[in-house]
Design the sequence.
């Protein structure tokens, strides 16, 4: 049960509880009009405040389903004089016909003045009490009056009666008495000693015949042919209608006396609306929708059907229906439609209107694509279905793969063997529309690849690919692990640096299938031989060589060398000599280098007496030359004694600049501190000329 249904059930229970209590009420005129409330009770009551205009001092309550005029008695003597009027805010047009039906109920207990159905030009008006029915004194009006009290001053007949009276005049001898009075005495029932009237009343207006007629249980009781628009309402066809009542109790009673007051009730009935639709919206377009009124109607066992109510169906596509159960409705196409449904009583009172956006989905077009289908690898299926109204929300994949299924929008499977497969997907949209598509795909074999290579001693490698299962290959993908690669079938590549390079290869077949990736380490071990920098020594000075490059070493010639097969042999010479170094690595690669040794006759320190730092490549730098010595310190001073250059690096020299500024031509003084190979230190000074 929904919240609305629970509230509707509460409304039903509360309604009959109220009716029962009012039937036993001990107060005066009780005018009860049950209108057509279509949803929950709280909305029904709130609607009445917007639908009605109220005036007077005896209105107990007004809702969409009822009006109650109750006597307000004094505490001292239990007397009362009360009158009230309730008008429907929206006027009616007397140029149009109308039929308004209701149930009138009253009894013969104390204070029952009577009431009236009234048409008036003034919705702010209210009539008199003192048996005035709440109508007496309302000018420009016409009423069907129900009078259960005989008043001689109004020239009432000697029976309870119904009449048509005008301009607030309740005197039956007046010219404003348009029809009646007519007795309805025979319609009373005697219940526990109290006379009670309870019957269906219908008020009809025929603007062509200018006839206002009142029926009781379908029998015409009073009718007046009268030009209401011109003679009463001064040519204005738009008037208000409503109900008035009065209650008068002038006899004094003790304060604690138990007095049971009479009542009068006008009832339209109450409805608790419900409707159903089959199929339930929202749904898929293509089938008719059958809407059914499932409302619950209450009329206190007076009505035998729902003739007192009106239904308004608006299907949102320009089609409307005003009956209880519309025929099956065919919408023109997929889309959204603003559906509205309401039930009113005959005066148009309703608590609310059901609003719903009905969306009819369009039949989808099922489709899908897939990545290349290859054995023993993931094949992905991508939903490509389309729908104008309503997105797919359910997918049922059948991969034709040993019963494997899927239920994702984009799903996948792994086929263990090549061959053809019938793959299908069934989709269902959020509105229940379904479509299925089946496609035949071919599962292809994956290529199996390998490679070999040949390399030289300089870092050049020639690769050769191999397809082991002889499949056509569309693309090759090489990664040489040095941030480069190739798409050639058999590429060649030059590695700049030594190292181990994990070279990888995979291939893509003409069916789009990707092989496993084959990786092999490629060792690059190029030789970089270094015999040492050319140097000078003194005659008989032992000097140790320091070769680099790895592998095995071989020096030639062997003259003056302590060992020709090591990296660091010791040499002693008495003449200039060049030595040739040959290095062989583990891969059998061979490389060579040369070192030249100049031999001086004695151990001494030499500094040129002039140099020319003019950047011509000849004598641009001043060096200290010290065969048999190791230069520990070399400094140059200008003629003013300012230090312009110094170094502890035996290989460094002065370029004729001081702090980046070229120095002037002229004489400079140099100082050298050195240690010979025997460990003796010397300090030498001299001069040099800078020539530019």
Sequence:
């Amino acid at each position: 049960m929904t919240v609305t249904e629970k509230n509707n059930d509460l409304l039903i229970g509360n309604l009959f509880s109220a009716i029962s209590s009012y039937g036993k009420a001990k107060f005066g005129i009780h005018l009860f009009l049950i209108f057509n409330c279509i949803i929950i009770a709280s909305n029904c009551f709130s609607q009445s405040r917007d639908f009605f205009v109220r005036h007077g001092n005896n209105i107990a309550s007004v809702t969409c389903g009822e009006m109650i005029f109750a006597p307000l008695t004094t505490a001292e003597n239990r007397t009362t004089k009360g009158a009230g009027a309730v008008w429907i805010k929206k006027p009616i047009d007397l140029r149009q016909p109308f039929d308004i039906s209701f149930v009138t109920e009253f009894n013969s207990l104390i204070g029952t003045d009577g009431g009236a159905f009234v048409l008036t030009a003034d919705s702010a008006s209210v009539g008199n009490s003192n048996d005035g029915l709440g109508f007496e004194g309302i000018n420009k009006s016409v009423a069907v009056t129900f009078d259960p009290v005989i008043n001689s001053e109004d020239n009432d007949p000697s029976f309870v009666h119904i009449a048509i009276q005008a301009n607030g005049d309740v005197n039956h001898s007046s010219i404003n008495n348009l029809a009646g009075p007519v007795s309805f005495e025979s319609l009373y029932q005697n219940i526990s000693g109290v006379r009670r009237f309870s019957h269906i009343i219908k008020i009809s207006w025929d603007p062509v015949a200018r006839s206002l007629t009142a029926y009781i249980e379908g029998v015409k009781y009073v009718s007046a042919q009268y030009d209401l628009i011109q003679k009463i309402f001064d040519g204005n066809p738009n008037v208000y209608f409503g109900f008035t009542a009065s209650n008068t109790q002038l006899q004094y009673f003790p304060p604690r006396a138990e007095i049971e007051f009479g009542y009068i009730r006008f009832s339209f009935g109450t409805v608790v609306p419900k409707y159903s639709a089959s199929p339930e919206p929202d749904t898929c377009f293509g089938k008719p929708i059958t809407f059914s009124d499932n409302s619950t109607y209450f009329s206190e066992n007076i009505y035998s059907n729902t003739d007192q109510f009106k239904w308004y169906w608006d299907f949102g596509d320009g089609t409307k229906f005003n009956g209880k159960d519309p025929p099956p409705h065919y919408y023109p196409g997929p889309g959204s439609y603003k559906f509205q449904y309401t039930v009113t009583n005959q005066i148009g009172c309703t608590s609310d209107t059901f609003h719903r956006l009905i969306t009819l989905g369009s039949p989808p077009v099922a489709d899908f694509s897939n990545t290349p289908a290859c054995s023993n690898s993931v094949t992905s299926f991508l939903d490509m279905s389309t729908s104008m109204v309503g997105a797919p929300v359910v997918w049922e994949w059948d991969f034709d793969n040993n019963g494997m299924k899927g239920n994702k929008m984009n799903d996948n499977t792994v086929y263990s063997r090549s061959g053809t497969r019938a793959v299908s997907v069934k989709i269902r949209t959020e509105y229940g529309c379904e479509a299925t598509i089946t496609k035949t795909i071919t599962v292809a074999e994956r290529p199996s690849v390998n490679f070999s290579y040949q390399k030289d001693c300089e870092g050049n490698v020639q690769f050769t690919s191999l397809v082991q299962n002889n499949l056509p290959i569309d693309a090759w993908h090489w990664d040489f692990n040095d941030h480069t690669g190739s798409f050639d079938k058999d590429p060649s590549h030059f590695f700049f640096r030594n190292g181990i390079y994990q070279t990888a290869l995979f291939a893509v077949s003409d069916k789009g299938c990707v092989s496993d990736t084959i990786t092999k380490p490629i060792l690059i071990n190029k030789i970089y031989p270094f015999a040492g920098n050319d140097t000078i020594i003194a005659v008989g000075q032992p000097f140790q060589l320091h070769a680099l490059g790895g592998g095995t070493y071989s020096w030639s010639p062997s003259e003056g060398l302590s060992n020709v097969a090591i990296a660091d042999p010791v040499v002693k010479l008495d003449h200039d000599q060049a030595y040739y170094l040959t290095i062989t690595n583990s891969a059998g690669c061979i490389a060579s280098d040369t070192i030249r040794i100049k031999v001086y006759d004695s151990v001494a320190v030499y500094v040129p007496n002039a140099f020319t730092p003019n950047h011509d490549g000849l004598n641009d730098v001043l060096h200290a030359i010290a065969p048999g010595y190791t230069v520990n310190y070399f400094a140059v001073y200008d003629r003013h004694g300012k230090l312009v250059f110094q170094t502890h690096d035996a290989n460094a020299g002065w370029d004729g600049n001081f702090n980046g500024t070229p120095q002037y031509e002229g004489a400079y003084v140099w100082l050298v501190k050195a240690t010979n190979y025997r460990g003796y230190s010397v300090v030498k000074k001299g001069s040099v000329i800078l020539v530019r």
Summary: The radius of gyration is 59 Å. The chain has a mean pLDDT of 87.
